[in-house]
Amino acid sequence: MHDVSAFVSEVANELATWPGVRIEGRPDGAAVVSYDRSELGVLYPERGVAELPVPDREHDLLVEHGDAEPADLTGGSSGVSHSIHGPSDITAVLELFDRRYRDVRGEDDPYSSEDPDYPQGRLDQL
Fold first, then answer.
1. Phi, psi of 8 (to 5 degrees)
2. What is the reported pTM?
3. H helices of the chain, where?
4. CA 49, CA 8: separation in Å to the nearest integer?
5. How far does the chain reach from its first CA to its final CA, in angstroms?
6. Tens digit of each residue's pLDDT (9 = 90 or more) over 54-84
7. pLDDT tens digits for 27-54?
8. Beta 69-71 vs 79-83: how paired, if at all?
9. Residue 13 contacts by C-beta under 8 Å, 6 or more apart in sequence?
10. How many other β-carbons are positioned within 10 Å of the β-carbon of residue 53?
11. What is the DSSP letter of 120?
């Protein structure tokens, strides 16, 4: 059995390098990840779980595609959770935090080769 708190620590260490992100411990051992005045999510080292608030439209897509599980957040907001039990989970959780970080900052998602406006062919031919 792996020490899941070590995987959660890896996530926290990476998030701490993002501009403007703060991580503050709570008395229950959880860590609140925030940017400016917005909560990005909460890390639970003992449980090996990350929970993030997301808009309803995004919640259903993330759950439907298997990128996250539904989370029961307080305050009537919808959210998702993801277990952190290995390196692939670290990557997946960081991707969820990246989505939330970009949303809070008002940034567009990075281009994907699956986007209809993504340049096709060689760059010198565009």
1. -65, -40
2. 0.79
3. 4-15, 56-64, 87-105
4. 8
5. 51
6. 888 888 888 888 888 888 665 556 789 999 9
7. 999 999 999 999 999 999 999 999 999 8
8. antiparallel
9. none
10. 20
11. -
